[in-house]
Request: fold
Amino acid sequence: YAPEDAAQVETQIFKDNSKSVLSTNDSPDVGFGVSLNPYRGCEHGCIYCYARPTHEYLGLSAGLDFETKIFAKPEAPALLRKSLEARSWKPEVIVMSGITDCYQPIERELKLTRQCLEVLAEFRNPGVIITKNALVTRDIDVLTKLAEFNAIQVVISITTLDKELARFMEPRASRPDLRFQAVEQLSKAGIPVSVNMAPIVPGLTDSEIPAILKRAADAGARSAHYTLVRLPYGVKDLFQAWLDEHYPTRKNKVLNHIKDTRGGKLYSAEFGKRMKGEGIYADQIAQMFSHYRKLYGLNKPWLPLSTEHFQRQGEKQMSLF
Reply:
């Protein structure tokens, strides 16, 4: 963790020459099977990001490198098209941002996510977007096309209403108020949108559950969900150093509450427990979230997206006759 350096280091963009763009997942508690990530690394710089260690596979650091050395996949739209055109492809939901945010700042310039959405719209293949960047509203025109066939859902991640905390914790993500504005714009455009309080940091943001869920409901969110902060591998050290710098008087409280939800450790990777935690404190968070989600009408079931309108180019032409 090197906050002073981060302010001085210019983001570098590298080309990722991946030969495929769809990743499959068999983890029982993730909730989706296929994901698409146009970028590796993330400029948002969220200190808690569980994906940081993925940069170490590239020989880079989970700290500053993860935020400033971004790998873009310029062939992502073409590779997606190739996958959907293949006869072996059985249409199913594709989640964008399974690892890093598909609407991170560089997307404003490169537009890889938008191009991938245009491919999904062409094939009418359903997709889910998970982001904490209000830039998603730029693509409402494409999202609306998918919504016509019940083929899109957007999930906006909101962790806090505290502007200062957000600036320290998620330095280059959209401000909380802009994210709520994005929820409102998407909802008014007829695009199903949910709010994810992800992650909840015990002892730091859990007290904000009622206020965040009320704002989400007022903005037009259909439902709300949450995960607890996950600190795998070197993320634990980065997070503790961050607390030392920004919230030293709260450090012990936060770390002890995290341990209360992780069997006495800062992280446990056990399936079924890693997303929500365990123990009395985790149960209290779950009960509070459940109560206010129901109170504000955010407990609507997650509507399944449709694959029945999927079409390939050749099939579209044949349907004209």
